[in-house]
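Sample 1 of the test manifest.
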Amino acid sequence: MVTDTLTPTAESAIVESIRVAVPRRGLRHDLRAVSVVWRRELIRFRTDRLRAVTALVQPVLFLFILGTGLGSLAGRGMPPGLDFKTFIYPGVLAMSVLFTAIFSAGSIVWDREFGFLREILVAPVSRASIVIGKCLGGATIATFQGIIFLALAGFAHVPYNPVLLVTLVGELLLLSFTLTAFGVMLAARITQFQAFMAVTQMLVMPLFFLSGALYPLSGLPSWLTVLTRIDPLTYVVGPMRDAVFSHLNIAPVEQHLLAPGLDWAGWPVPQWLSLGIVAAMGMTMMAIAIAQFRKTE
Amino acid sequence: MSVRVSSRSGQLQAAPANGGDRPVIEVSGLAKRYGEVEAVRGIDLAVRAGETFGFLGPNGAGKTTTIKILCTLANATSGTATVAGYDTATQRDAVRRNIGLVFQDTTLDGYLTAEQNLRFHAELYGVPKDAVQPRMRQVLDMVGLWDRKDSLVSTYSGGMQRRLEIARGLLHAPHVLFLDEPTVGLDPQTRSSIWAYINELKGREDITIFLTTHYMDEAEHCDRIAIIDHGKIVAIDTPEALKASIGKDRVQIHTADDEAAIAALTGTFGIEAAVHEGAVTFSVDSGEQFVPRLFAELGVPIRSVSVSRPSLDDVFMSYTGKTIRDAEASGTDAMRQMARLRGRR
């Protein structure tokens, strides 16, 4: 390590300092700020490989341990030749982005006290561009995380069909964006890191269990039906399962039984509406987060 | 070398920092309250262009709160502040374009190189692309880190990180540089090296520096200082003028019986004395001539004696009635209270 020298470097005899005019804010400048926050998020993800590996542990456990174990029991209700792992794969895929997306927002709580966020808050950029950059950054790294898990699709007998893969990645991106926006909205209010972790830990599991990731959404008791329809995750897991099942070689009757599609009190929710709801939720939560960030101490 | 990067268009032109003699920083009646705690209670000051202005006071005196208001990170409860001619409450963006801020604790990204940190900063401030490289070289040379620009910041020592932060704060050529406790937590040698760089910077850049410190010896580097205690400014002047205003030498004695000594000083010489930092402390006009009389007439055995010319410590003591270290002890309580309040929100 280089020690601190006592004398400033003398060789740089620049008499006149370089003039820099900091421009007034405009759309282009704000877009650049979005890009700075977004790229920083990607660099952090790239340098933190351990995080990518540990984030993979939980979905792998669910798919292979829980999927195989429960499969011996639940498999009896499955059509012949269909693995229980295939059934839960779309839900577990959603889970693989759940933690990464929400916790990527957690760095806001940390950064606000100690780091980069404070430096960016004093820069001439809009608060909105910081929040948007953060949401897009979290969405991107969570989607990467999902793509890693998507590579394991073959183990759950999900075919590597290009159309299916593109559809799933698109849906993951949407889900990741909304979950990150949710995390950012929470992080804007919570100033202590431990509190943020506690709140998100408390919310993550119910989100997952109510999404229909592990069971079909038809024929449930009415109280559970209502709860599943409130969970935003449901509106992504449903379309993802539809996508997977439409690429399997099974009879339409069985497909209808396992992936019945979403309905509101008997009215079938079209897929575009389902995904539209998720997008609208994400935008709303991002707008709330921006409003929070605009407030000054 | 003289590189001038012209603006891309007319609208890029930064506003003049000081039209005529207008102060670069102007604060009047500024107050800030966090719930029950009055962090700043009505301060007035004016900092001229090119000045290095020091804000001196114990922890919890309101220094950081004042900087936060001046840098648009907090709203004042009452009063106004302008920086580079812009109002900190209503013209935040214009203020932000014209200031650089170095925080008390590091805000660098350890997993990025020094260059990456600076490039992100340049983008956030919209520094024109062709100006980034030469300006980066200039500020990194100034703090002696050009050779290390490709190293990860996490491999930097504490002093190097602070220097890099100063360089980053200067990158967009601000009119005013705010330094919040620039040397806190550094060893004495590194502290003096940071000051060497700051003094160097004053010679090179057309810049006004506003800094806070609770180190008395560092306040000596400033052109003018404001002494702040319990959220109020108790004195503003040059370090020399402040010391001259005290006029007296400071005498500290260790005695066998401090209480008797204090009583004897009052009784025999008519001098007010008190115990500070474990020694009986008082001020007299000319210390050297007073000491022989002291030994002859005090009547209490004296173990040791020290005489010192007025320092900023004495200035602080004469305006606040305590040494800065005494004030520090009580100030910490106020800080804790504030931290609790913030956490609760």
